[in-house]
Amino acid sequence: MSDNKDRFLSILRTNVQRDGLEELIKWLESTDFFTAPASTKFHSAYKEGLLVHSLNVYDILKARNDRDGNIESGESVALVALLHDVCKAGFYKESTRNVKNEQTGQWEKVPYYQVEDRFPYGHGEKSVYLIERFLRLKPAEAIAIRWHMGSFDDAVRAGGYTLSHAFEKYPLAVKLHLADLEATYLLENDS
Predict the structure, then answer these.
(1) What domain range is 178 assigned to?
(2) DSSP conformational letter for 115
(3) Most CB within 10 Å of its CB: which of 60, 85, 104, 191?
(4) Looking at the domain assignment, is residue 100 inside a domain?
């Protein structure tokens, strides 16, 4: 087991005291969650990238919560930060593509990840659905995970005010979104 996986599981088991946690962990272990990339090319597009991203989001969200006087419970922080992207389990497929080597002028096969979404149910809502097969989320946790993509979510681009209402009513949703942005664009930006 990798150090990152050990840390992930330790944080979950230390902070989360809900029925169904061990079943959720068993399910995660039956998927590629702990070895999958976080994206195909934008951030943490490497083996275990999703795990690293989840831990980065946790560290950022926990630090913000600590600074704010622990407004959110440690359980909520751990759940939303570590599990916000469980929708990416079984989402990527390893493949190869041809890339021209600029030095030799020769074409070479290089590995890369491509999307193979076997359960097209959205992003945040898919994570909520998958988690709740095993344990119940509080409304603030479900809303935070559902809207962690903020205005990058397809439903927001299609119009409507649901995101702004979610952010107004549930500060945890805003905090998770900001932690996800910081991890993605400041810590993990591979470009």
Answers:
(1) 3-90+122-187
(2) E
(3) 85
(4) no
**Crossing angle between the packed helical segments 139-146 and 171-182, to the nearest 10 degrees:** 40
Question: Is 107 part of any domain?
Answer: no
Q: What is the pLDDT of residues 119-148, one digit of tens each?
A: 888 888 999 999 999 999 999 999 999 988
In a domain, 103, yes or no: no
Q: Which two tokens stand for residue 120?
A: 């097209």
Give the model confidence (pLDDT) of 59-85 as tens digits: 999 999 999 887 889 999 999 999 999
CB-CB contact of 98 with 39 (8 Å): no
Whole-model pTM over 0.85: yes
Query: CA torsion 173→31→115→176, rounded to 10°?
Result: 10
Give the chain's domain count: 1
| Residue 86: closest CA among 17, 22, 133, 156 | 133
Residue 29 belongs to some domain of the structure: yes
The model's confidence at residue 58, banded by pLDDT at 50, 70 and 90, is: very high
